[in-house]
């Protein structure tokens, strides 16, 4: 083997190698996107429909109490979080596809630890979600939604979207590793996305939900995504939870999902 | 390129009573063999004989049901991470990513294997050159021919200079010309670097041309193992390896295989 170490600190070299492996996975995914960016555009259609049709129609009914916010202001962050969820939840299908092709065998036989492969994919999924920010902000200008134009808040939006993509794509990876077949996965993906979406504060405030749904909303990671995005994009203050709570819950959810995925990810091969 | 540093005294691969069960079905049933360093070892048998399952266990992709094996001196049950650093593996399926270029596929491998960044470009150009793919380095792999994809996959498996290379049905779905080119590359690589190669095939001609030692697998067991010339010599002057297989199993290698295997092979062919 070639000499891989430059410095006399093995821990430093190991860390550098692990970081390089994560970057390699992310880079390969982004290079694929560069060769074929078509999906970035098709993915923009769904959030546009939600905001333009559902959002505007519901805004006119004035049926949902959103306090001082207009209804469109209220749901813009919800639709962003939802579109990230919808993209990320089907990320696992790529894993099944790669398993069927044989690409996954090649990746799994490399010395990169399984946890690195999982984290790499999660970050790649996070990047894939970033294009949705563009369409939501563009539509918001068009619909005169009162966005905050603050540099740090915008960085917060990027961080939240990356984290959301990472959480739900890892969840998707776990489901793919369990169900193993594309057809089954599609069915389960459909079944999961709607409850996650509706049992959250994306379209209506938690306070107007029945008690049982409130409990579901509080254990749903999407609620914390929406809450953080609403703070960063619109209000600039806490709505249901403090930003610290939003990020603490999201990071814990991600860490737990990575631990589970690391254990069951290689099992997709058998 | 450094000389192979493998200790020539101990076997590159030692397999001892290896078993893999799927429910009660024994896909690999108490298989034992040793592979000396630097040889090309062929695992022969029809589809479903347990060849790919054996390779998957030796490459640490599949847990064993019982038994053990040592690859480059490391135990597959206890030291899988060390083994993954030492081996290259080309699966039967299509492992090059069609949505990336040849160069990008190799770049991913060099980074996953932890090659130092000052060394990566040199290694990538070396393996591309060796496999005759330099003019196509920046072409998307989904525009490649089947033979070029296989050469790229082997290049990927060799980019970190493994001591042992596993090839699972390397020439399946290739036309005779592409097959011969691939054989030439494999033989040339072994001659230059002394890499131990374990390959599976159900093509007797391929085994005869390439392998120093072959082992016949049938229903999860090894039924015969020796140099191809010696196996044939036992049967008489005009015998073929297929005759040897018929002698040991009572059926021709060409007749076996089931629906799932046929589907898998045709899928692979259509991908290629």
Salient structural properties:
heterodimer; A: 270 residues; mainly alpha; 12 helices; 0% strand; disordered N terminus; B: 272 residues; alpha/beta; Rossmann fold; six-stranded mixed sheet; four-stranded antiparallel sheet; 10 strands; 22% strand
Structure report:
The complex is a heterodimer of chains A (270) and B (272). Helix content of chain A is 75%, strand content 0%. The longest helix of chain A is centred in the middle third of the chain and has 29 residues. Chain B has a single domain, classed as Rossmann fold (3-Layer(aba) Sandwich), CATH 3.40.50. Chain B contains 10 helices and 10 strands. In chain B, the strands form 2 sheets. Chain B has a 6-stranded mixed β-sheet with strand order 6-7-8-3-9-10, sandwiched between helices. In chain B, strand 4 and strand 5 form a beta hairpin. In chain B, helix 3 packs across helix 4. Chains A and B meet through helix 1 and helix 6 of A and helix 2, strand 6, helix 3, helix 4 and helix 5 of B.
Question: How would you concisely characterize the structure shown here?
Answer:
The complex is a heterodimer of chains A (270) and B (272). Chain A is mainly α and 270 residues long.
């Amino acid at each position: 083997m070639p000499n891989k170490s430059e410095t006399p600190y093995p821990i430093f070299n190991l860390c550098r190698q692990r970081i390089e492996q994560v970057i390699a996975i992310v880079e390969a995914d982004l290079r694929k996107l560069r060769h074929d960016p078509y999906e970035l555009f098709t993915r923009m259609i769904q959030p546009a429909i939600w905001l333009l049709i559902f959002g505007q129609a519901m805004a006119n009914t004035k049926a949902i109490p959103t306090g001082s916010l207009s209804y469109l202001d209220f749901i813009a962050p919800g639709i962003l979080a939802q579109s990230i969820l919808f993209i990320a939840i089907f990320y696992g299908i790529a894993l099944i596809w790669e398993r069927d092709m044989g690409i996954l065998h090649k990746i799994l036989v490399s010395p990169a630890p399984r946890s690195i492969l999982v984290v790499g994919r999660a970050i790649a999924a996070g990047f894939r979600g970033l294009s949705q920010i563009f369409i939501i902000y563009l539509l918001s200008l068009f619909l005169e939604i009162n966005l905050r134009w603050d540099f740090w808040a915008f960085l917060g939006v990027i961080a939240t979207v990356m984290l959301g993509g990472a959480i739900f794509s890892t969840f998707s990876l776990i489901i793919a590793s369990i169900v193993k077949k594309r057809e089954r996965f599609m069915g389960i993906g459909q079944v999961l996305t709607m409850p996650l979406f509706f049992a959250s504060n994306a379209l209506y405030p938690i306070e107007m939900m029945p008690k049982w749904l409130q409990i579901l909303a509080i254990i749903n990671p999407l609620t914390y995504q929406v809450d953080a995005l609403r703070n960063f994009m619109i209000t600039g203050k806490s709505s249901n939870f403090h930003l610290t709570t939003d990020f603490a819950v999201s990071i814990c959810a991600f860490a737990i999902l990575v631990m589970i995925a690391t254990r069951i990810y290689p099992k997709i091969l058998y | 390129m450094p000389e192979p540093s493998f200790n020539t005294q101990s076997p590159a691969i030692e397999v001892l009573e290896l078993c893999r069960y799927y429910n009660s079905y024994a896909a690999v049933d108490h298989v034992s063999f040793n592979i000396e360093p630097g040889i090309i070892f062929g695992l022969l048998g029809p589809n479903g004989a347990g060849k790919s399952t054996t390779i998957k266990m030796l490459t640490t992709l599949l847990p064993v049901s019982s038994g053990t094996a040592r690859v480059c001196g490391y135990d597959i049950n206890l030291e899988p991470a060390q083994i993954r650093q030492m081996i290259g593996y080309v699966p039967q399926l299509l492992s090059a990513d069609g949505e990336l270029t040849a160069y990008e596929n190799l770049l991913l491998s060099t980074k996953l294997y932890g090659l130092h960044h000052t060394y990566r470009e040199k290694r990538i150009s070396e393996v591309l050159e060796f496999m005759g793919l330099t003019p196509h380095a920046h072409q998307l792999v989904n525009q490649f021919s089947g033979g070029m994809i296989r050469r790229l996959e082997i290049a990927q498996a060799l980019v970190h200079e493994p001591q042992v290379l596993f090839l699972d049905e390397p020439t399946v779905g290739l036309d005779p010309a592409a097959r011969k080119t691939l054989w030439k590359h494999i033989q040339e690589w072994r001659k230059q670097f002394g890499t131990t190669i374990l390959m599976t095939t159900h093509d007797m001609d391929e085994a005869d041309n390439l392998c120093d030692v072959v082992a016949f697998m049938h229903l999860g067991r090894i039924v015969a193992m020796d140099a191809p010339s010696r196996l044939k010599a036992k049967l008489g002057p005009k015998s073929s390896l297929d005759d040897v297989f018929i002698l040991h199993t009572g059926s021709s290698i060409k007749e076996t295989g089931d629906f799932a295997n046929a589907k898998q092979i045709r899928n692979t062919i259509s991908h290629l």
